[in-house]
């Protein structure tokens, strides 16, 4: 039986900023469907793609079970190599 996809109300950037502030997120913020990075199946599925890299790539079921769908996603070599590329500088707004 297929479960419905999870739709997050947060963008990848918002999730990643929460991570940087020390909050815990239950699964990889870069897991999503090929055409919609904000939605992913809550189980290992061929519909889930890794959006951590520039061009989204399929996430293997074993990769999803071991990293993407768990709190262990930060141990993923792809995540470690590319997650920093998604951080945008925060403007101080001071114009100094």
Write down how many β-strands occur, each being a DSSP E stretch of 2 or more residues.
5
- Cα separation of the termini: 57 Å
Shape: globular
Major sheet strand order: 2-4-5
Write the H/E string, N to C. EHEEEEHH
What would you note in describing this structure?
With 96 residues, the protein is α+β, with helices and mostly antiparallel strands. It is 24% helix and 15% strand. The protein is built from 3 helices and 5 strands; from the N terminus they run E-H-E-E-E-E-H-H. The strands form 2 sheets. It has a 3-stranded antiparallel sheet, with no helix packed on it. Strands 1-3 form a two-stranded antiparallel sheet. Strand 4 and strand 5 form a beta hairpin. The longest helix is centred in the N-terminal third of the chain and has 9 residues. The protein is globular and about 30 Å long. The termini are far apart.
């Amino acid at each position: 039986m297929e479960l419905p996809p999870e739709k997050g109300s947060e963008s990848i950037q918002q999730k990643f900023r929460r991570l940087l502030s020390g909050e815990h997120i239950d699964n990889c913020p870069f897991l999503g469907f090929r055409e919609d990075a904000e939605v992913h199946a809550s189980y290992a599925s061929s519909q889930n793609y890794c959006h951590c890299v520039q061009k989204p790539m399929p996430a293997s079921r074993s990769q999803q079970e071991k990293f993407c769908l768990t709190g262990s996603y930060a141990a993923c070599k792809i995540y470690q190599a590319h997650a920093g590329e998604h951080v945008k500088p925060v403007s101080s707004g001071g114009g100094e």
